[in-house]
Amino acid sequence: MTEPVLSVRGLSVDFTVRGGRKARAVDGVDLDLQPGEVLALAGESGCGKTTLARTLLGLVKPSAGTVSHNGTPLAYNTGALKRYRRAVQLVLQDPTGALNPRHTVYEAVAEGLRIHGMVDNERERVASALSKCGLRPAERFFLTYPHELSGGQRQRVVIAGALVLEPSVIIADEPVASLDASVRGEILSLLLQLRDDFGLAALVVTHDLGLAWSIADRLAVMYLGRIVESGPVEQVLTAPSHPYTRALVSVLPDSPIAAPVVLAGEPPDVTQIPGGCRFHPRCQELASGPAAAAGVDGLCRGTALPVLSPDPATHSVACHLHAARVGQFTQTA
């Protein structure tokens, strides 16, 4: 297996909230992104996936743990961050907000080149990036303003602005959430084409498991700051093993789960993470008896689970009941 292009070990991110309390948005995450791989990071709002993505971009400094690019740990001085952000680029979910309405398409795409001092052959670089993103002939769009473009075209300009720096990783935060259904498929196809043509790796942050099925090679499901299940996307979505993942998958069309699972309550306050399995206050398997029948209900309430292994080939699950059913944990401490 090749060296990961992006790697995370023991990552935690804390924030101080009103009253001086500590909120742990990300709590011990190990993650690897392989060259040319599309990894979807899924979970409901507030689970920590956007904070994790911002930390991977170097926008948030972790409270603990490391982020490494091509095996080199990220340093947080200005020069190191500038070099890193050329290699790891962001694609935002709202192209209208991401583009300056006073800047032409040319200026929007060329901005990154100028920031990073890549001014040689600027015109050719901008034209090439726009063409790769399906805006052809590129010169026709140079003097166009964002309001003159469709939503799909604006998103292509945002992707071109990232691609022009020739990054090795793209982190896309809900890349099609603000687009009409008619153009979502086009943008997803573009991201896959860029992966195939240029070997780009991508981390796609989403709450839409249908999108993950369409685009991702691997899926990681987050709950309350931790990855609770990860593995090849087909395995996770056709045979979900964690009760939380099963609840998410149960409402998909043609779900392998016979009936929709309605979770009780809301995710706990991140300043008061429950002991034991952090999902246990809402777990349908604990509430309805299977955990007690397997003799793990006490573990669910009182014994913390290890951090999942980052092995991309393994279907890993952080669940005491699953561990009892398979006879061992499928994750490492």
UniProtKB/TrEMBL annotation:
Pfam families: ABC_tran, oligo_HPY. GO terms for molecular function: ATP binding. The keyword ATP-binding applies. Residues 8-249 form the ABC transporter domain. InterPro entries: AAA+_ATPase, ABC_transp_ATP-bind, ABC_transporter-like_ATP-bd, ABC_transporter-like_CS, Oligopep_ABC_C, P-loop_NTPase. The keyword Ligase does not apply. Keywords: ATP-binding, Nucleotide-binding, Transport. Belongs to the ABC transporter superfamily. PANTHER family: D,D-DIPEPTIDE TRANSPORT ATP-BINDING PROTEIN DDPF-RELATED, TRANSPORT ATP-BINDING PROTEIN. NCBIfam families: oligo_HPY. This is ABC transporter ATP-binding protein. It comes from Tenggerimyces flavus.
